[in-house]
Amino acid sequence: MQTIAENYPQQGFGLTQEQIANGLKQALDKGIDEQVSKLTQTDGFYKNQLVKILLPEELQKVEKGLRDVGLGSLADEGIKALNRAAEDATKEATPIFVNAIKEMTFNDAKNILLGDDRAATTYLEQKTNQELYNKFNPVIKNSFSKVGADQIWSNIITKYNNIPFTQNVNPDLTDYVTQQALDGVYTMIAIEEQEIRTNIASRTTDVLKRVFALQD
Question: Out of the domains of life, which is the source (predicted)?
Fold first, then answer.
């Protein structure tokens, strides 16, 4: 088996292709375990300012309109419901990520290792984005019913549309929250990837230490 020393003789670490790929897989597994799992918990999105789902542009005027007429608590409830749906859907992500990680080749690993600080996250985006969207979208739609978001937003939009001199709105919230949930998942993986690349203390296994020493 070809070794890393043959690919990068100046390093001389003597790591095999398999060890390099395993090191990258460990890094991605760590990101999923430590970051994505947090998003599935109650308030995982809602109280994380990096990924909290706010209102789409066409509904920001709805939020302002509600707050202007003393219905700020209703707007807050609606925003929380969107984040609850994202937290619910993210539980579907881990098996899809695991499959993408299993399929990683040595060339994938080499490109990630020598790529930018977000190369591993970009790899996962390319491998999983469409599948995750297809998985998240119906879950979020169902979750809207489960957490009451459909009724909350029907009530909110009805109230807003009844405010004098406002223009009626009817946005596709399921698609919007699906996209925002995906963005949140990749954001948290990217944070963990950057931590492993830049903080030696975060490399918690021998393989991680040896593999990422190659890019230091």
Answer: Bacteria
> Alpha helices, DSSP H only, in 4-53?
4-7, 17-31, 37-39
- In terms of Cβ atoms closer than 10 Å to its own Cβ (0-12, 13-18, 19+), residue 42 is exposed
Look up the pTM and report it: 0.79
DSSP state of 41: S
Helix (H) or strand (E) holding 47: none
| 135 Cβ contact partners less than 8 Å away, ≥ 6 residues apart | 89, 92, 93, 96
CA angle 110, 112, 115 (to 5 degrees): 105
pLDDT tens by residue, 51-83: 999 988 777 877 888 788 887 887 888 889 899
What is the identity of the amino acid at 65? G
